[in-house]
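In the lab's daily routine, each protein ends up as an entry in a very long ledger. A line of letters takes care of the sequence, but it says nothing directly about the fold. The three-dimensional part falls to structure tokens, numbers that each stand for a local backbone shape. The outcome of that step, for a single protein, is printed below.
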Amino acid sequence: MKCFAAWLAIGSAVILSGCATGSGVALDAPRAAISPEDVRLYTEPPARYVVIGLVDATSRAGGFQRAKMSRAVEELKVQAAKLGANGVLIESIGDTRGGMVGGFGGSMMYAAHVPSKSASGKAIYVPRD
């Protein structure tokens, strides 16, 4: 049974390893969705832009902290692309309280803290001159 609990823990970690979730709220007239690869990230506002909406993302599980942050930032681009934005003006990046994952197998119980990384910003449209 101890072996079962260990495999259950490993399996849970593998299943959760690529998870990132996000959301976007449109503030402007709807635009056609674009490819996330066409969304550019900005840490400083460009000279001209229109705010289309607000986006946020969280990467909760699996991998190193840098990988979690990369997944959260990539999810920002996905959410912005759904709104038709060609840019994200990043407002915050950091840690959030994660959850716990655990289970019970035979006579053994396990639990592990799962820290999260999050990012948020403004979905923007930058005219291409």
Remarks:
- Confidence is low (pLDDT under 50) at residues 3-17.
- The helical segments are 2-16, 65-82.
- The CA atoms of residues 36 and 77 lie 5 Å apart.
- The first helix runs from residue 2 to 16.
